[in-house]
Amino acid sequence: METETPIASGEITNSCTCTVYDEATGEYTDEPSDSCFGDCWELAVEDFEMVTEELRDSNETGWWRVSGLRLWNGEVGGYFYADKTVALIEGMTVNSAWILNYEVFSDRIEYSLSHHDAPMGSSSVIRPVSDEEREEKGLY
Q1: pLDDT for 94-108, tens place per residue?
Q2: Residues 28-69: tens digit of each pLDDT
Q3: Nearest to 83 by CA among 125, 49, 111
Q4: Fewest Cβ atoms nearer than 10 Å: which of 15, 65, 66, 108?
């Protein structure tokens, strides 16, 4: 069996820490910095926006179905509306600190979300909702 190759993959975290780099020691300090280096929120959103553009554009309804999201009470799934990249990320995640490792395919995003209720992550999938499914579920 042939394995499908993802279009893109990456990692996003909503816990961007920006500290001062001490050139004398070659290490970062605990002192907050005015500028951030590394994969901070705005850059991560821009990257995610770029690699998911085709999938988001192909979703004519703006509705998404998520499955396999691990929470304190087990795995859950559901539907949400997202017309912006940040709204899509919010629908894929939880309201706490998290790390999202993802693979983008032509028809879905497969991801693992690590957070306080699922420190080892989860096997989650998000797919666009078709017009037929939207009407069937009463999503407006």
Answers
A1: 988 899 999 999 999
A2: 777 766 666 555 777 788 999 999 999 999 999 999 999 998
A3: 49
A4: 15
At 91, which amino acid appears?
Answer: G
CA–chain centroid gap for 53, Å, is: 13
Please report the pLDDT score of residue 138 as a whole number.
92
Sign of CA dihedral 53, 58, 63, 64: negative
Average pLDDT over the chain, rounded to an integer:
87
> pTM to 2 decimals?
0.80
Token pair of 51, please? Answer: 């690699």
How far, in Å, CA of 52 to CA of 47, rounded?
A: 9
Q: Which residues pair with residue 112 across a beta bridge? A: 101
| Alpha-carbon span 114 to 131, nearest angstrom | 31
Yes or no: say if 91 and 66 are a contact pair by the CB < 8 Å rule. Answer: yes
Give the per-residue pLDDT at 62: 96
Q: Pick from 29, 125, 118, 23: which is nearest to 73 by CA? A: 118
Measured CA to CA, the distance from residue 45 to residue 13 in angstroms comes to 10
